[in-house]
Specification:
The complex is a heterodimer of chains A (365) and B (400). Chain A has 365 residues and is mostly beta strands. In chain A, 7% of the residues lie in helices and 48% in strands. Chain B is mostly beta strands. Helices cover 1% and strands 67% of the residues of chain B. Classes of the chains: A mainly beta (365), B mainly beta (400).
Chain lengths: 365, 400
């Protein structure tokens, strides 16, 4: 009796130590890559990742062997952070604003190596939430969710002057000496004051706000769409105030046209707009070329059976150097995304898988 | 894996308050018929504060007040020897007041009725019952009213040999309404959540033996094997912060599991009393909603396949020693089972030494613990690191 008892006890102990020692950790350190080597020709894709998940990534698609790698992580042996919001190429420097991680990461675009992580914090050290980037011929500009535009010197990589704009800027663009900033007021959506409805005009030379233009409820993405014109999306309130496309004449900084069009993101293609949208009620994607003067749109994709493969169209990037269009697909928003590449006429070329929520794609050779 | 830089100056805070009152009344009318009543009132309050929000007011403060009133009645009647018929009724009234939420006020009235037949002769145990769930939800903002009604059958059969070996099996149909937390604890709407429906099959075996020659030494081992099929499984995925999780229905989830528990106690020389307990769980919980999805057959988030614990306690008249290990295998923070979503396995060891002292008749117990003995950096929830090595002193006083 005594013997069986001890045998049973030993089995029990064995069981417990068995699982306390079998943690299958793969701690083999990644071989330290040589960081001075130039990257092969490819497409950089900024993947936002999920809010609060710290899984933003910069992936690189190799045009020679079709390999996709998490290039920022691999070269720099650290994650990009939480919510990579925008990517801007200035010379050989790639600027990436990371909203949740209070920083702008500056990379060498040839090697992928991190040159500097610029902290974007206020006087108390709190995250300003860097949002979108733009550039003039000599300066990089960043708008922050706490209501500012900051100047970043692309040579010294230091933050210079700042100017207060409206509530929760969503996007920024530069045209003819002025910065145009969309003030969304998004963080007050459920308070009595509600969304903002203005675009701030900032004189980039003086770094002063010269005007606030009333453009409609909840302005979002903004881009130059001609010599003297910027176009933007106003999102409305997702119920009774509809989504619209607004143009501003930059010679007098007045609203020129407002058309109700459902679009979530856009870029400029020739003299037209290329926009993407997903209708949550009809559960249908649309990717269209839009003429804002005639307010008419046509389907962009000419290859059959491609549109149905795009689950959640998200980012739209027109590349005028290579005459290509990169449409990003956020799929379920919590699983791997995809990039679909087209020629400028909407003919499908190829697609590849990325990290979560790809938004901005940039081909570099 | 690459370096993770943690954000060190989080200032989000969460307060919770709970209060309840209950009363139980039992009456046996005669040898055969008995009646039991149970009433309960419950109040809870939570407050989430993020003092650094970039809205106009500069902060986010969400308060949630919840009340629950509950009434239960069980009447049981002994039909013949060993066979009992019972009818139970539960009524719940819940209300939520959340001034800052999208849905500011919500009410729920639910009733659960069960008719059960129980046979028990100390060797054979059979329990068959049918349960009916009725729920009426009313939400103030959009004035929507929803009702749900569901019948759930349950059957279990068990047999015990000579008080040492038991084998039993059950089938259960489970219906779970999304709770107020699931539905409304958020600034965005999850009110379209469907109830979770599950079918469970379980086989349980248990062996336990006392060694009479050895004072109260004993050994026991129990094994449960189960298969669950869950439809519209309600799961929470943390989103913006620890308080605001996204609650989603998960289509169909298949769960195959095995739970093993064993314990052993004996006396050793030098007046040592040894207690050992070990548990191991295997749980393969996979998303089988959509064969074309990227996540088909992937383990669902935050559910380890392997987990377990080990507990050792040695008692001596002079000093007590307790050693605990918790083991959690690798998990995934998101639905896709790929490396970048993986949370590493971890082991948490802790040790406690304690001693009793007597001051006249009063007992004082002093304990010294070291938690997370090996200072392992681990995360239960992704990006929220758990404390590393900590020391704790406990003082317990029993007054006579």
């Amino acid at each position: 009796m005594k013997k069986t008892k001890w045998i049973l006890a030993l089995i029990l102990l064995g069981l417990s130590f068995g699982f306390s020692s079998c943690t299958d950790e793969n701690d083999n350190n990644n071989d330290n890559p040589s960081t001075t080597e130039n990257l092969p020709n490819g497409v950089f894709v900024l993947c936002e990742g999920n809010d609060g998940m710290n899984n933003s990534a910069l992936v690189h698609y190799n045009l020679q062997n079709n390999e996709v790698i998490d290039i920022f992580d691999k070269i720099n042996n650290q994650g990009l952070g939480d919510l990579g919001n925008d990517m801007e190429l200035f010379g050989d420097k790639l600027f990436i604003s990371v909203k949740g991680s209070a920083s702008v990461n500056v990379l060498n675009s040839k090697t992928g190596k991190l040159i500097k992580r610029i902290p974007i914090v206020d006087e108390q050290g709190a995250n300003r939430k860097p949002s979108r980037l733009t550039q003039s011929s000599s300066m990089v500009y960043l708008c922050t969710v706490d209501g500012y535009v900051l100047e970043i010197n692309p040579q010294s990589l230091s933050v210079g002057r700042k100017v207060k704009v409206g509530r929760n800027p969503e996007d920024i663009c530069y045209l003819n000496g002025n910065l145009y900033v969309t003030n969304s007021g998004g963080l007050d959506w459920n308070t009595p004051i509600g969304y903002d409805r203005t675009v701030s005009v900032v004189d980039a030379q003086a770094m002063t706000e010269t005007k606030k233009i009333d453009v409609g409820l909840n302005p979002a993405f903004i881009k130059p769409i001609g010599e003297n014109r910027v176009g933007l999306i106003v999102r409305g309130n997702y119920s009774d105030v509809p989504n619209a496309f607004v143009t501003i004449n930059t010679t007098n900084n007045e609203v020129e046209s407002t058309n109700n069009v459902e679009m979530s993101n856009f870029d400029v293609i020739g003299n037209n707009i290329l926009y993407v949208n997903y209708d949550y009620i009809a559960m249908q994607s649309s990717i269209k070329t839009y003429n804002y003067t005639t307010n008419t749109s046509t389907d962009f994709i000419t290859t059959p059976n491609i549109l149905s493969q795009i689950m959640s169209p998200y980012g739209v990037n027109v590349d005028n150097n290579y005459n290509e269009v990169y449409l990003t697909d956020a799929t379920t928003f919590s699983t791997s995304g995809k990039v679909f590449v087209f020629d400028i006429n909407g003919g499908f070329k190829y697609s590849f898988t990325t990290s979560n929520i790809p938004s901005i794609a940039l081909r570099l050779e | 894996m690459s370096t993770t830089l943690y954000y060190l100056n989080s200032s989000q805070r969460l307060w919770d308050e709970n209060f309840f009152l209950q009363s139980i009344f039992t009456h046996n009318f005669n040898k055969r018929l008995s009646d039991r009543n149970h009433a309960k009132a419950l109040y809870s309050f939570s407050h989430f504060l993020d003092p650094k929000t970039l809205n106009l007011s500069g902060f986010q403060s969400d308060k949630y007040y919840q009340r629950e009133y509950y009434l239960n009645n069980v009447a049981s009647y002994l039909l013949v020897k060993d066979l009992t018929l019972a009818l139970s009724n539960d009524i719940f009234l819940n209300n939520l007041n959340a001034p800052s939420s999208f849905y500011s006020k919500a009410n729920r009235t639910s009733s659960i009725s069960a008719l059960s037949l129980l046979f028990n002769n100390s060797k054979l145990l059979i329990n068959a019952n049918i349960l009916h769930n009725y729920v009426l939800d009313y939400e103030d903002k959009e004035k929507t009213q929803k009702t749900k009604s569901h019948f759930s059958p349950f059957l279990s059969i068990g047999y015990t040999w000579e008080e040492t070996f038991t084998i039993s099996a059950f089938y259960k149909d489970v219906f779970r309404m999304p709770s107020f937390n699931d539905l409304y604890f958020n600034r965005v709407s999850f009110a379209s959540l469907e109830p979770e429906k599950a079918k469970q099959w379980n086989i349980h075996t248990e062996f336990s033996k006392n060694f009479d020659s050895y004072k109260s030494s004993f050994i026991s081992l129990s094994i449960d094997a189960y298969y669950n099929n869950v439809e519209d499984k309600i799961i929470a995925v943390p989103q913006r912060n620890l308080f605001v999780w996204s609650i989603i229905n998960y289509g169909r989830v298949e769960i195959k599991g095995l739970d093993i528990q064993s314990s052993f106690r004996t006396y050793l020389p030098f007046s040592l009393d040894l207690n050992l307990r070990a548990t191991y769980s295997y749980q393969k919980a996979t998303d089988v909603s959509n064969p074309n999805a990227l996540t088909f057959n992937h383990q669902i988030p935050y559910t380890p396949i392997h987990s377990g614990s080990f507990f050792l306690n040695i008692t001596h008249p002079l000093i007590d020693l307790a050693y605990t290990i918790n083991f959690v295998g690798k998990r995934f923070a998101l639905a896709e089972n790929i490396d970048r979503n993986m949370l590493k396995p971890y082991q948490d060891h802790s040790i406690t030494l304690s001693k009793d002292f007597f001051l006249k008749k009063n007992k004082i117990n002093i304990g010294l613990s070291c938690l997370n003995l090996f200072g392992v950096q681990y995360e239960v929830v992704r990006n929220y690191p758990m404390p590393q090595r900590q020391f704790r002193i406990n003082l317990k006083l029993d007054l006579k």
